[in-house]
Amino acid sequence: MLLGGLTVATVAGVPLGAWLGQLSGRRGPFWALAALSAGAAVVIGRYIPADERREAPSVRAEFAALRDVRVWPTLSSMTLLMGGVLATYTCISPLLTERAGIPAGAVPVLLTGYGLGSLLGTTVGGRLGDRRPLATLITAATMTTLVLLLLTSLSPSPVAAIVLVTLMGMTGFAPTPVLGALALRFSGSAPTLFSGLSGSAPNVGIAIGSWTAGLALTSPLGQAGPSLVGKAAAVLTLVPLTALALMRATRSETSPPQPLAAADQSIGCGTQDIG
Hints:
single chain; mainly alpha; 13 helices; globular; disordered C terminus
Protein backbone atom coordinates (compact mmCIF):
# COMPACT_ATOMS: atom_id res chain seq x y z
CA MET A 1 0.00 0.00 0.00
CA LEU A 2 2.87 2.33 0.79
CA LEU A 3 4.55 1.75 -2.55
CA GLY A 4 1.15 2.06 -4.21
CA GLY A 5 1.31 5.75 -3.40
CA LEU A 6 4.49 6.03 -5.44
CA THR A 7 2.89 4.34 -8.43
CA VAL A 8 -0.25 6.47 -8.20
CA ALA A 9 2.03 9.49 -8.25
CA THR A 10 3.61 8.01 -11.38
CA VAL A 11 0.19 7.67 -13.02
CA ALA A 12 -0.76 11.30 -12.36
CA GLY A 13 2.47 13.17 -11.75
CA VAL A 14 4.75 12.03 -14.57
CA PRO A 15 2.34 12.82 -17.44
CA LEU A 16 1.43 16.13 -15.75
CA GLY A 17 5.11 16.98 -15.31
CA ALA A 18 5.85 16.11 -18.94
CA TRP A 19 2.97 18.30 -20.11
CA LEU A 20 4.08 21.19 -17.88
CA GLY A 21 7.64 20.81 -19.14
CA GLN A 22 6.45 21.13 -22.73
CA LEU A 23 4.63 24.35 -21.83
CA SER A 24 7.17 26.05 -19.58
CA GLY A 25 10.49 24.40 -20.35
CA ARG A 26 12.35 21.78 -18.36
CA ARG A 27 12.69 23.98 -15.26
CA GLY A 28 8.95 24.53 -14.90
CA PRO A 29 8.11 21.17 -13.25
CA PHE A 30 10.93 21.62 -10.75
CA TRP A 31 9.64 25.03 -9.64
CA ALA A 32 6.12 23.59 -9.35
CA LEU A 33 7.38 20.66 -7.25
CA ALA A 34 9.36 23.01 -5.00
CA ALA A 35 6.23 25.08 -4.32
CA LEU A 36 4.10 21.98 -3.69
CA SER A 37 6.74 20.50 -1.37
CA ALA A 38 6.94 23.71 0.65
CA GLY A 39 3.16 23.69 1.05
CA ALA A 40 3.18 20.03 2.04
CA ALA A 41 5.86 20.70 4.68
CA VAL A 42 3.61 23.33 6.29
CA VAL A 43 0.64 20.94 6.37
CA ILE A 44 2.73 18.08 7.77
CA GLY A 45 4.24 20.28 10.46
CA ARG A 46 0.81 21.53 11.48
CA TYR A 47 -1.30 18.37 11.47
CA ILE A 48 0.93 15.32 11.94
CA PRO A 49 1.11 14.54 15.67
CA ALA A 50 4.50 14.26 17.29
CA ASP A 51 5.63 10.70 17.88
CA GLU A 52 6.27 9.43 21.37
CA ARG A 53 9.83 9.66 22.57
CA ARG A 54 11.61 6.38 22.11
CA GLU A 55 15.01 5.08 23.08
CA ALA A 56 17.52 5.78 20.33
CA PRO A 57 18.76 2.61 18.59
CA SER A 58 22.32 1.51 19.16
CA VAL A 59 24.55 2.55 16.28
CA ARG A 60 26.72 -0.50 16.86
CA ALA A 61 23.70 -2.83 16.70
CA GLU A 62 22.47 -1.14 13.53
CA PHE A 63 25.75 -1.61 11.67
CA ALA A 64 26.27 -5.10 13.07
CA ALA A 65 23.18 -6.23 11.16
CA LEU A 66 25.04 -5.54 7.90
CA ARG A 67 26.94 -8.78 8.49
CA ASP A 68 23.86 -10.76 7.43
CA VAL A 69 24.81 -12.20 4.03
CA ARG A 70 21.20 -11.97 2.80
CA VAL A 71 21.21 -8.20 3.04
CA TRP A 72 23.59 -7.38 0.22
CA PRO A 73 21.94 -9.47 -2.53
CA THR A 74 18.62 -7.89 -1.58
CA LEU A 75 19.95 -4.33 -1.80
CA SER A 76 21.88 -5.15 -4.99
CA SER A 77 18.68 -6.45 -6.59
CA MET A 78 16.92 -3.18 -5.74
CA THR A 79 19.74 -1.13 -7.23
CA LEU A 80 20.06 -3.11 -10.45
CA LEU A 81 16.39 -3.67 -11.26
CA MET A 82 15.15 -0.15 -10.60
CA GLY A 83 18.26 1.27 -12.24
CA GLY A 84 17.59 -0.76 -15.37
CA VAL A 85 13.91 0.10 -15.64
CA LEU A 86 14.39 3.79 -14.93
CA ALA A 87 17.38 3.95 -17.27
CA THR A 88 14.99 3.08 -20.06
CA TYR A 89 12.16 5.22 -18.74
CA THR A 90 14.30 8.34 -18.27
CA CYS A 91 14.99 8.46 -22.02
CA ILE A 92 11.64 7.06 -23.17
CA SER A 93 10.46 10.26 -24.93
CA PRO A 94 13.12 10.14 -27.69
CA LEU A 95 12.33 6.47 -28.26
CA LEU A 96 8.60 7.16 -28.58
CA THR A 97 8.92 10.26 -30.76
CA GLU A 98 11.97 9.61 -32.93
CA ARG A 99 11.96 5.82 -33.17
CA ALA A 100 8.25 4.96 -32.92
CA GLY A 101 7.10 8.16 -34.65
CA ILE A 102 4.57 9.13 -31.95
CA PRO A 103 3.76 12.88 -31.78
CA ALA A 104 5.41 14.67 -28.85
CA GLY A 105 2.06 15.99 -27.66
CA ALA A 106 0.79 12.44 -27.13
CA VAL A 107 3.72 11.34 -24.95
CA PRO A 108 2.27 12.58 -21.61
CA VAL A 109 -0.90 10.57 -22.27
CA LEU A 110 1.07 7.46 -23.17
CA LEU A 111 3.12 7.73 -20.00
CA THR A 112 -0.10 7.19 -18.07
CA GLY A 113 0.02 3.61 -19.34
CA TYR A 114 3.40 3.16 -17.69
CA GLY A 115 2.01 4.49 -14.43
CA LEU A 116 -1.01 2.20 -14.56
CA GLY A 117 1.27 -0.74 -15.30
CA SER A 118 3.41 0.21 -12.29
CA LEU A 119 0.35 0.34 -10.04
CA LEU A 120 -0.83 -3.06 -11.25
CA GLY A 121 2.65 -4.56 -10.93
CA THR A 122 3.06 -3.29 -7.37
CA THR A 123 -0.32 -4.74 -6.36
CA VAL A 124 0.13 -8.13 -8.03
CA GLY A 125 3.79 -8.43 -7.01
CA GLY A 126 2.97 -7.72 -3.38
CA ARG A 127 0.19 -10.32 -3.35
CA LEU A 128 2.25 -13.03 -5.00
CA GLY A 129 5.30 -12.16 -2.94
CA ASP A 130 3.43 -12.96 0.27
CA ARG A 131 3.45 -16.62 -0.75
CA ARG A 132 6.45 -17.06 -3.06
CA PRO A 133 8.82 -14.11 -2.62
CA LEU A 134 11.87 -15.43 -4.45
CA ALA A 135 9.88 -17.04 -7.26
CA THR A 136 8.03 -13.75 -7.74
CA LEU A 137 11.28 -11.78 -7.85
CA ILE A 138 13.05 -14.07 -10.33
CA THR A 139 9.98 -14.25 -12.59
CA ALA A 140 9.54 -10.47 -12.57
CA ALA A 141 13.22 -9.85 -13.34
CA THR A 142 13.13 -12.36 -16.19
CA MET A 143 9.97 -10.81 -17.65
CA THR A 144 11.49 -7.33 -17.35
CA THR A 145 14.52 -8.51 -19.32
CA LEU A 146 12.25 -9.94 -22.00
CA VAL A 147 10.15 -6.76 -22.21
CA LEU A 148 13.25 -4.58 -22.58
CA LEU A 149 14.64 -6.91 -25.23
CA LEU A 150 11.41 -6.65 -27.20
CA LEU A 151 11.34 -2.89 -26.71
CA THR A 152 14.74 -2.63 -28.33
CA SER A 153 13.68 -4.57 -31.42
CA LEU A 154 9.98 -3.67 -31.76
CA SER A 155 9.98 0.00 -30.76
CA PRO A 156 9.68 1.24 -34.40
CA SER A 157 6.07 0.01 -34.20
CA PRO A 158 3.97 2.61 -32.29
CA VAL A 159 1.48 0.03 -31.02
CA ALA A 160 4.21 -2.34 -29.83
CA ALA A 161 6.07 0.53 -28.13
CA ILE A 162 2.97 1.63 -26.21
CA VAL A 163 2.17 -1.91 -25.04
CA LEU A 164 5.76 -2.65 -24.06
CA VAL A 165 6.15 0.60 -22.10
CA THR A 166 3.07 -0.34 -20.08
CA LEU A 167 4.40 -3.86 -19.51
CA MET A 168 7.77 -2.41 -18.49
CA GLY A 169 6.06 -0.51 -15.68
CA MET A 170 4.18 -3.62 -14.57
CA THR A 171 7.11 -6.07 -14.54
CA GLY A 172 9.65 -3.51 -13.31
CA PHE A 173 7.64 -2.48 -10.26
CA ALA A 174 6.33 -5.93 -9.30
CA PRO A 175 9.48 -6.77 -7.30
CA THR A 176 9.63 -3.50 -5.33
CA PRO A 177 7.24 -4.40 -2.47
CA VAL A 178 8.80 -7.85 -2.14
CA LEU A 179 12.37 -6.54 -2.00
CA GLY A 180 11.39 -3.83 0.48
CA ALA A 181 9.70 -6.37 2.73
CA LEU A 182 12.69 -8.73 2.55
CA ALA A 183 15.10 -5.92 3.45
CA LEU A 184 13.11 -5.16 6.59
CA ARG A 185 12.73 -8.87 7.37
CA PHE A 186 16.49 -9.33 7.26
CA SER A 187 17.15 -6.13 9.23
CA GLY A 188 17.21 -7.82 12.65
CA SER A 189 18.37 -5.18 15.13
CA ALA A 190 18.68 -2.44 12.49
CA PRO A 191 15.19 -1.53 11.22
CA THR A 192 16.05 2.18 11.07
CA LEU A 193 19.22 1.70 9.04
CA PHE A 194 17.57 -0.78 6.70
CA SER A 195 14.58 1.47 6.09
CA GLY A 196 17.04 4.08 4.88
CA LEU A 197 19.08 1.64 2.82
CA SER A 198 16.01 0.13 1.15
CA GLY A 199 15.03 3.64 0.05
CA SER A 200 18.54 4.65 -1.00
CA ALA A 201 19.46 1.54 -2.98
CA PRO A 202 16.86 2.04 -5.75
CA ASN A 203 17.75 5.72 -6.05
CA VAL A 204 21.43 4.91 -6.42
CA GLY A 205 20.47 2.57 -9.24
CA ILE A 206 18.23 5.20 -10.83
CA ALA A 207 21.00 7.81 -10.73
CA ILE A 208 23.62 5.50 -12.23
CA GLY A 209 21.17 3.97 -14.72
CA SER A 210 19.91 7.36 -15.93
CA TRP A 211 23.46 8.66 -16.36
CA THR A 212 24.47 5.54 -18.29
CA ALA A 213 21.31 5.74 -20.40
CA GLY A 214 22.16 9.33 -21.32
CA LEU A 215 25.58 8.24 -22.52
CA ALA A 216 24.01 5.40 -24.52
CA LEU A 217 21.48 7.79 -26.07
CA THR A 218 24.26 10.01 -27.44
CA SER A 219 26.29 7.02 -28.64
CA PRO A 220 25.90 5.33 -32.05
CA LEU A 221 23.19 3.15 -30.46
CA GLY A 222 20.87 6.16 -30.48
CA GLN A 223 17.32 5.78 -29.18
CA ALA A 224 17.79 2.02 -28.67
CA GLY A 225 20.73 2.58 -26.30
CA PRO A 226 18.82 3.23 -23.05
CA SER A 227 16.72 0.08 -23.40
CA LEU A 228 19.89 -1.94 -23.97
CA VAL A 229 21.32 -0.49 -20.75
CA GLY A 230 18.11 -1.43 -18.96
CA LYS A 231 18.20 -4.95 -20.35
CA ALA A 232 21.79 -5.45 -19.16
CA ALA A 233 20.89 -4.28 -15.65
CA ALA A 234 17.81 -6.54 -15.57
CA VAL A 235 19.93 -9.54 -16.56
CA LEU A 236 22.46 -8.72 -13.84
CA THR A 237 19.62 -8.60 -11.30
CA LEU A 238 19.22 -12.35 -11.73
CA VAL A 239 22.66 -12.87 -10.16
CA PRO A 240 21.85 -11.64 -6.61
CA LEU A 241 18.33 -13.10 -6.83
CA THR A 242 19.78 -16.50 -7.68
CA ALA A 243 22.16 -16.14 -4.73
CA LEU A 244 19.18 -15.53 -2.43
CA ALA A 245 17.46 -18.60 -3.84
CA LEU A 246 20.54 -20.77 -3.34
CA MET A 247 20.81 -19.53 0.24
CA ARG A 248 17.13 -20.39 0.73
CA ALA A 249 16.97 -16.95 2.26
CA THR A 250 13.25 -16.94 3.01
CA ARG A 251 12.76 -20.56 3.95
CA SER A 252 12.48 -20.20 7.72
CA GLU A 253 10.54 -16.94 7.54
CA THR A 254 7.91 -18.33 5.19
CA SER A 255 7.31 -21.58 7.08
CA PRO A 256 3.77 -21.76 8.48
CA PRO A 257 3.59 -21.08 12.23
CA GLN A 258 3.19 -24.09 14.48
CA PRO A 259 1.10 -24.31 17.66
CA LEU A 260 3.17 -24.08 20.84
CA ALA A 261 2.51 -27.71 21.68
CA ALA A 262 3.68 -28.85 18.27
CA ALA A 263 6.74 -26.65 18.58
CA ASP A 264 7.60 -28.23 21.93
CA GLN A 265 7.33 -31.69 20.38
CA SER A 266 9.56 -30.59 17.51
CA ILE A 267 12.23 -29.53 19.97
CA GLY A 268 12.11 -32.97 21.54
CA CYS A 269 12.62 -34.58 18.15
CA GLY A 270 15.66 -32.45 17.42
CA THR A 271 14.05 -30.27 14.72
CA GLN A 272 16.20 -27.21 14.01
CA ASP A 273 13.83 -25.12 11.88
CA ILE A 274 10.93 -24.13 14.17
CA GLY A 275 8.22 -21.58 13.37
